[in-house]
Write a structure and sequence with these properties.
With about 210 residues, this protein is an alpha+beta fold. The protein has 5 helices and 10 strands. The strands form 3 sheets. Strands 1-10-9-8 form a 4-stranded antiparallel sheet, with no helix packed on it. The longest helix is centred in the first third of the chain and has 28 residues.
Amino acid sequence: MSWQEYVSYEPLNVTERPAAALAVTVESDIDRVSALLSGIKGGWQQAVGSALARAANAGKTEAKKAVTEQYALSASEFVNRTKNVNHFNRSSDGEITVSFGYRGSVIPLMRFDTSIDRSGRVVTRVMKTSTKKALDHAFSAKMGSHIGVYERIGTSRFPVKELYGPSTPQMIGTNETVADQVEDKMAEVYEKRIEHEITRVLNGWGV
């Protein structure tokens, strides 16, 4: 894949950039957890929520290593740009499943391997396996407190568009092997952790 496949264009003043999400659904026996903790107000939600947090963090660690090996993005940037999300879903027959994963907006191109060459052109790469490419019509500028890479819309000085790379969930999802590893890790940790969290709530540890 070439870096061009990942570059997206957004208006300068958008308040919400497009986001992508990667999620895994755990077919856990929520009814059992709920029954075991029925005498404790909010008990099953606390147990499941804590297990989800541990699982999501384990998956994020797995993803961080794989993504930063392929993309010209720092590990700290990956962590800052990746948010944990989880949802409880109840079907029409009353069955509850848990979906959890990650959400993140597209990342400014400046956050990747981007620099200005001696001629003043913006040169960049998103993938580590790619060579840097010059963006002949782009320029770097500080807009408020934000420094980004921009392109003009039309021939006038304004308006301009900022250039972005992919979101972290997109980076994970475009590699099926990595996505499978992350999903398997999240599911594995959740299934192990939920038993500990049930015991913790039953015994009143930290409740």
